Amino acid sequence: MPELPEVEVVRRGLERWTAGRTITAAEVLHPRSVRRHAAGPADFAGRLAGRAALAPRRRGKYLWVPLRDPAEGPGTDRAPGEALLAHLGMSGQLLVGDPARDREKHLRVRIGFTDGGLDLRFVDQRTFGHLMVADLVPDVVGGTGLVPEPIAHIAADPLEDAFDAEAFFRALRRRRTGLKRALLDQSLISGVGNIYADEALWRAQLHWARPTETLTRAEAARVLTAAREVMGAALAVGGTSFDSLYVNVNGESGYFDRSLDAYGRRDGPCRRCGTPIRRDEFMNRSSFSCPTCQPRPRRARY
Hints:
Elements: H1 4-17, E1 23-28, H2 41-48, E2 52-53, E3 57-59, E4 62-68, E5 82-87, E6 92-97, E7 107-113, E8 119-124, E9 130-138, E10 146-148, H3 165-175, H4 179-183, H5 194-204, H6 217-236, E11 278-282, E12 285-289
Antiparallel strand pairs: 1-7, 2-4, 3-4, 4-5, 5-9, 6-8, 7-8, 9-10, 11-12
């Protein structure tokens, strides 16, 4: 599943190619892709038509495009009231390109613009992703601006100025769970998924089953620093692409998979100590760690 760096790469692409343009029409080719839009595909398309797409924003694994009525003009002081909210799921892609190009096999939603230029397409092989038009509400997490109502409850992500490291540490100590499970909890910290959790824990030299109530403030800070570093490094090379299902808006893959230290490297030598990387089953997925650099705690929490 695309995580924070991959979604941020897509957001930057949308900012370059769609911000400031006016939507002429939206075509829904598969209703499952707008299943979270309760009023249905026709209402979804109707609420996009004629709206101007503003600069996209992101929190964790979600991105959204605020919408404005063109009659209000670009200089209006009135805040936008709605946004196109997107979650890419396991295989969702937001692609821009020539409107005359062939339709992709798994094309689910197509959005055209009044200028006749590049269109925007939501392609999703597994249909776990979704689009919806949502109301914008005050951002009680970040303290400023507006966020889509369906994600108003999720935590800030570690790359946001709004992220409160001390509050995160206190929440970890109260939660009494395994450290990796806590990192994947979007109510504690958003945007961290399976890949970057393993990579951050490898860098911080902490085991994924470490009980959160035993963490020191310094250890929690080490995990956050590692998460920010690894996601920053991934952003610099376009994210992580293990297959063709994650690409940026131009259809290009990211290259951070070549730099992974733990995730997916079962039996490969640890780049610090040479010990073979271990794979454990975790929440119906996998967790990768170095048995030497990240020793399993005596009292593990899963």
